[in-house]
Amino acid sequence: MVVESKVELFVADTVESAKFYAILGIVVVHAKPSGYTTLRSESTVIALSPVPWWLPLRWLGFLRYPPIGTEIVLYTAQLEQARAAFERAGYSPGEIAVQPWGDRDFRITDPDGYYIRVSEGVAVPFGH
Questions:
Q1: In the chain, which end has fewer C-beta atoms inside a 10 angstrom radius, N or C?
Q2: Which residue from 82, 2, 75 is spatially nearest to 44, judged by alpha carbons?
């Protein structure tokens, strides 16, 4: 049975990507000489795997957007602070909105075009 999980993202620059995720408190816990970097915040684990410089990740970022790509959802109890932190760092997060299903969130794209939804609350509601 599964005891842990992580999401592995293929990125152009692991240092740049680690700085992006550190804004949410997901920080480097291990880095290999090859550049492979593991980030963690509590039970959230994201691995950053470097790809060759010549691969056009940023040009193909649109392929990572729903409905054909993947939506990575990260939860926080400090939604406004998280959005403000991205703005201070020079990123362009979307506005905080209440979704039709009742969750408050904002959307942002990471340095390699991954579509990130930062949502208020928890992944699985209590009691489920």
A1: N
A2: 75
Q: How far apart are CA 38 and CA 49, in angstroms?
A: 9
Is the Cβ–Cβ distance between 47 and 17 less than 8 Å? no
Q: Which two tokens stand for residue 71?
A: 């939506």
Domain that holds residue 17: 7-120
- Between CA 94 and CA 68, with CA 13 as vertex, the angle to 5 degrees is 50
Question: Of 54-63, 78-87, 107-116, which range is least confident?
Answer: 54-63
Q: CA 112, 37, 51 angle in degrees (round to 5)?
A: 45
What is the dihedral angle through the alpha carbons of 62, 99, 17, 32, rounded to the nearest 10 degrees?
-110
